[in-house]
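Invent a record, attention on C-alpha cells:
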Amino acid sequence: MSATQAAPARDRLRIAIQKSGRLAEPARNLLSACGLSWRESRDKLFCYGESLPVDLLLVRDDDIPGLIADGVCDLGIVGRNELDEQAAARRQAGLADAYQALRGLGFGQCRLMLAVPEEWQWQGPAQLSGTRIATSYPAILKQWLVAQGVDAQVVELSGSVEIAPRLGTADLICDLVSSGATLRANQLTPVHNLLDSEAVLAGAVRVPDDARASLRAMLLRRLDGVVQRQDRKLLMFRASEDRVDALAQLLADAEPLVRLPADGGALRLQTMCPGPLSWQRMEELERAGAQGLMVLSVERSLA
C-alpha cells in the first residue's frame, strides 16, 4: 500500500520499536511508564497489548520509517538521524513526506558530525570542495552540501565509516558521534555538527480516523506527562516571609512557589524544578533562607 492510500480501519494501535540496540530497552521502559503492558509472541517479534489495545512490532531501527509510510504501524520510536535520513532520501527521489517526528523523547542522544584527520587545519565548509566524504547518511549529507554550495563526492558506506580515511577510500567522514572515543581511536577530529539526534516518536502524516485516533491522542498525552516530568523534582522547604522573594529569584526556572499551610512561624513552600538539583544550588537556597530542604522524584503527573 502506498503512503497516499488510506490505511484500512483498525481498532488497535501499532507501535514499532527496535528489537535490539541502544533504543530498545529505553523505548520499552518509556511505554511501560505510560501504563502499557504486553504478551510477547514466541518469535519475539510481536507484543500483543494487554492493558490497552496497543501492540508492539519489534523490528530493525532502519525499518521503522518505512513501516509507518506503508501503514503497517501507526507510530514508531526511532532515532531522529534515521528518520531524517529516510525523509531526505524520499524528498530527493521526488516522493511526498509520509511521516514526521511527533515528540522528542530525551534519550539516545548523539550528533551527526563531520570529522577530519587530526593533521587537518579546519577552515570551514568551503574547504570540502573536491573531497571525498564517507558516510552512512548520504541523503542528509547531500542536502547539507547543496545548502553550503559545496561540490564534494559522497562515499556511501554501511558500516566502519571511521576507518575510510586510513584505507584511502575517503578524505574525511560524516558519522554519528556520542562520546567521541571511536573518532580519537582513528585519529579523527569532529569539526562540524550537521544534526543533533535523539530518540523520537514518529507518526504518519495522515492521522487515522478510526478507533486508533483516540488511542493515539491518549498515548501522546501520557508520553508528554512521562517525558516532561521524568527529570523534574518536587522541592519542598520552609522559609520566613521576608526571604520568599530572594528564594523565588534563585528558582526563576522553576514553577511559581506554592504556599502551603504555615508550620509555626515559618511558611511552607514547594515548587517543581526542571532537571536535577545540584548540591551547589541546594546550598545557595539554604544560604538564602530555605530550611528543611527536601527533594522528591515525580513518578507521574497529569498536569
About this structure: The longest strand covers residues 188-197. The chain has nine helices and 16 strands.
